[in-house]
Write a structure and sequence with these properties.
Two copies of one chain form a homodimer. The first copy, chain A, is α/β, with parallel strands linked by helices. Chain A has helices at 30-40, 54-60, 88-95, 117-120, 129-137, 157-169, 189-207, 221-233, 243-246, 248-256, 271-274, 283-293, 318-331, 354-361, 371-374, 380-395, 400-406, 408-418, and strands spanning 16-24, 63-68, 73-78, 105-114, 144-148, 174-176, 212-216, 238-242, 262-266, 280-281, 297-299, 342-346, 366-369. In chain A, helix 6 (157-169) runs parallel beside helix 7 (189-207) and helix 12 runs parallel beside helix 13 (318-331). Chains A and B meet through helix 2, helix 3, helix 8, helix 9 and helix 10 of A and helix 2, helix 3, helix 8, helix 9 and helix 10 of B.
Chain lengths: 419, 419
C-alpha cells in the first residue's frame, strides 16, 4: 500500500485542504502522525485492510502535502469525491471527527479548511449577507447598533417589548433575545413575538427607521421551523439560531427552507472546542461553515472581550485581535456567488470601547450591547443614547471625551465604566 | 443585589444541578468565579443591570451551593423554570454556552448534569433501548457483534452489500456504514440501501437470525428524514446519525418523528471538546443528553482504544476505563420511564481484546469491529468468524488461547494482532 505522505503533491483545483496543528503523542514523529490523520479522515484505519484495493486508494486517499516540524502544522489535501455536496455534518464527520480521538495525537487543532470553488458552489450561502442586512435597515455608512435584552430571562413578553421599544426609540437598530431565552413559562415565544413586533412597528413609525428584532428559535427542528414561520407570519424579519447547540444539520435545514428571514447566528458553546489553541477547531472554521450554510449575521468576537470586573482593566487586543481580524477578513474571501456574512461583536461591550472596536473591526459590523445599555446608571434609554452617541462620535471622527461634553448620556457612561 | 453564592442552599426536587471543574484566571478566586459562572448561565451579565429586579433574581437566579477548593469542583443549582421543557439546545446554550468563553476562567469543564425527574419526564428517551434492540435481534445472553464496513468509503453499493452479507453469514449481528459514508458519487445512499437490504434478507434466511444494518443518514435535516423514511420503506430497521456533527436539534427531531427505527448514535468529533480533562464537556454529559433525546445505541468508548501501530502495544485501561465504566453505569440510572441506551464499543478492536472488553463493560454491549474483521489476514469472512469465536469463548468462560486451538480463524487473528 502506498503512503498517505506525498510532499510533492500539489492540491488539485477541486480538492479540499485541511490545515491542522498537531502535537504528536510522545513516541511518534510528526510525519507518521500526519499519515494516520490522513488515513482516519479519508479511507484508512488502524490496521491493513484486505478490502482496501489499490484503485480505491489511488482515487480516494487523502494526501499529506505539507509538514512543518517547526510550526507543527500539516496540510492535507482531500479529493472532492470524499464529500457529499452540500452536507456540512458529513464534512465534519470526515475531517473533524475521529481524528480528535486518536491516541496518536496528544493535541490536534483544525485551524482552517480551504474549500474549492466546486465544493462551495453546492451551498446557498447567506440570503441577505452584509448588503442585504444594510438594505433592510437602510443603513449604509455606519455600523449597526444592536442590543440584547437583559436580564437574559425573567421579563414578561410585555416588559420585553417595552424595553425593546425604548432602546429602538433611542438609537438602537437591532434588538435580540438572549441565548437562553426561547419559550419559557413566564415568557412564551408566541406572546413575545406578538408583543415585540407591535411595539417595534410603533418605534419604526415614530423614528422613521426600519428596525430588526432577532427572535431566538433555538430548539428541536420541528419546533424551530414552526417558530420561524410564526415570526414571518406576524411580520418579523429576523430569527436567531444558536448554531453550535442546535448543530449544522438544523442550521442548513433552516436556510434551505428559504423563509426570507435574516438568520442571526449566535455561537454559545463554541469555546468548549475553539478556546484551546492546541486542540479542537478554530473559530475561523466555524465562521466559514456558517457562511456556507447561509447565516447572515454571525457572532465572531469582540476583540475587547467580556470586561469582567470592568474597572481599570486594560484592553488586551494581542492574539484575539489577530484571530478576529483574520476571521472577518477571510469571511470576505472571494467565495463565488456566496454573499458575505455580517460579523457581530457582542459580549461585555460599553460605549468607551466603541472607538477601538471600530478601528479594529471596521464599519461592516453589528455592535451588540447588553449590560452596556441596560447597565447604564440612568437606565436603558440613556444607555441606548450613549451608545448611539459613541458611534456618531467615531463616524464624525470626534474623540469620545470631546463629544461627551455636549452629550450627557455618553458622559455618564464613560464616567461609570471607566472609573 | 444578593449573591449567587449560597452555600447553605439544598437543591430543590425539580432543580437541575450542573457540576463544573474550574480553573479560575490568575487574578480571581474560585468562589468569585463560581458566581460569575452562575450569573452568566442564568440571568446575570458582567455589569449591574437596572432592569434586573429583585423578584426576578429571587425566582430565577442560579445558586452556587458547593465549592471544593481542593478538587476545583463547583456545583450550581438552577430553578427548572430557566429551561424550556424538551429543548436540549436551549439547555446547552444556558449551562454549556457562554460560560466557556469567559475571561474569568482559564479552563472550565462541565463534568456532569444531574437532571430532575420533572425535567427528564418531558423527553421521550430511546424507543428501543437495550431491551428493544435485544428483542429485535433475538439475542439475550451475549453482547451484540457489530462490524463497520471498511474501507470507510470507496466500495460500490453492490460491493458493500456483498461484504455485509459475508460478515452477516459468519456471526456478525449488526453492520454499519462508517461515519464519512453518506451518499457519495460512487455509492449513492438509495442504491446502497436497496442492495444491502436485499442481501441482508438473504443472510437472515440462511442463518435463521435477524440482522441489523445501520445506514448513515448524517446530513441536513430534510435530507436526513427523507433517507430515514427510505430505509423504513425498504424494510430496514436501523439508521445511524452522527450526533455531534449533526447536532442536538436534528437528533431530537429525528426521534420525535417516531419512525420506529433503531437510532444508532455515532459521536465523531466529540473529542474536540471531551478529550481535555480540564476544559469542555465530559462524554458523560453527551451520553446523558443522547439518552434524553432518544438514541438507542451510543458509541461510548472502547476502554482499550484505537490500537495505533497495533503490535506490542500494551493496553492502557486506567483513566479511560473509569470514565467509560461510569458512563455506562450512569446511563442505567433510574430515569423514570426512559429506557436505557445500549453502549457501543468501537475503534481499534480485534478478537484478542474481547475478554478484557467484556470483563470491563459487561454483556449489555455492542462490540464493533472494522479493521478487526476486514483486516484479518484471511479476509473479512474469517475475520467475522474469529470475532464470533472470541465472544463464544468468553461466554463459555474458556481462555481464548485454549479455544483458539480448535478454531483456526481465532488463532490466526490472535497470532496476527498480538505479534
Amino acid at each position: 500500500m502506498p503512503s498517505y505522505l506525498k510532499l510533492s503533491y500539489k492540491p488539485q483545483k477541486n480538492d479540499i485542504v485541511a490545515i491542522y496543528k498537531v502535537e504528536p503523542s510522545r513516541e511518534l514523529g510528526l510525519k507518521e502522525v500526519a499519515q494516520k490523520i490522513a488515513a482516519e479522515s479519508s479511507i484508512g484505519t488502524w490496521t491493513k485492510l484486505t478490502t482496501l484495493r489499490e484503485d480505491i486508494f489511488n482515487k480516494l486517499s487523502a494526501k499529506v502535502f505539507y509538514v512543518s516540524e517547526k510550526r507543527k502544522i500539516i496540510k492535507i489535501s482531500y479529493p472532492i469525491e470524499l464529500f457529499e455536496p452540500g452536507n456540512i455534518p458529513q464534512l465534519l464527520s470526515s475531517i473533524a471527527g475521529n481524528v480528535f480521538s486518536m491516541k496518536a495525537v496528544k493535541n490536534l487543532r483544525l485551524e482552517d479548511i480551504q474549500f474549492s470553488e466546486k465544493y462551495i458552489a453546492d451551498f446557498p450561502g447567506p440570503n441577505f449577507g452584509i448588503e442585504g442586512v444594510r438594505k433592510v435597515l437602510g443603513i449604509y455608512n455606519r455600523p449597526i447598533i444592536g442590543s440584547i435584552i437583559k436580564p437574559k430571562v425573567g421579563l414578561t413578553p410585555k416588559e420585553q417589548a417595552i424595553l425593546a421599544y425604548e432602546v429602538f426609540k433611542n438609537g438602537v437598530d437591532l434588538v435580540k433575545d438572549d441565548e437562553n431565552l426561547t419559550s419559557l413559562s413566564f415568557d412564551k415565544f408566541e406572546s413575545r413575538v406578538k408583543n415585540v413586533l407591535r411595539l417595534k412597528k410603533r418605534a419604526e413609525k415614530e423614528t422613521g427607521s426600519p428596525k430588526l428584532y432577532a427572535f431566538n428559535i433555538t430548539s428541536p427542528v420541528d419546533v424551530m421551523l414552526q417558530r420561524a414561520k410564526f415570526v414571518r407570519k406576524n411580520g418579523g424579519r429576523c430569527v436567531m439560531i444558536d448554531i453550535i447547540s442546535c448543530g449544522w444539520s438544523a442550521v442548513q435545514y433552516l436556510r434551505n427552507q428559504n423563509l426570507g428571514l435574516i438568520l442571526h447566528g449566535h455561537r454559545a458553546g463554541h469555546s468548549a472546542f475553539t478556546r484551546d489553541k492546541r486542540h479542537g477547531i478554530s473559530m475561523l472554521v466555524v465562521a466559514k461553515l456558517a457562511r456556507l450554510a447561509g447565516i447572515d449575521q454571525l457572532h465572531t468576537g469582540t476583540v475587547v472581550g467580556k470586561m469582567e470586573g470592568g474597572e481599570n482593566e486594560v484592553l488586551k487586543i494581542d492574539e484575539l485581535l489577530k484571530e478576529d481580524w483574520e476571521g472577518i477578513d477571510k469571511l470576505r474571501e472571494n467565495w463565488g456567488k456566496l454573499k458575505a456574512v455580517m460579523p457581530i461583536a457582542s459580549g461585555g461591550l460599553h460605549p468607551a470601547l466603541v472607538p477601538q472596536l471600530l478601528k479594529i473591526l471596521g464599519k461592516d459590523l453589528i455592535i451588540n450591547f447588553g449590560g452596556g445599555i441596560h447597565g447604564h446608571p440612568q437606565g436603558s434609554q440613556a444607555g441606548a443614547r450613549a451608545v448611539q452617541q459613541a458611534v456618531e462620535a467615531v463616524i464624525k471622527k470626534i474623540p469620545l471625551n470631546n463629544f461627551a461634553r455636549e452629550h450627557k448620556e455618553l458622559r455618564e457612561a464613560l464616567d461609570y465604566w471607566r472609573k
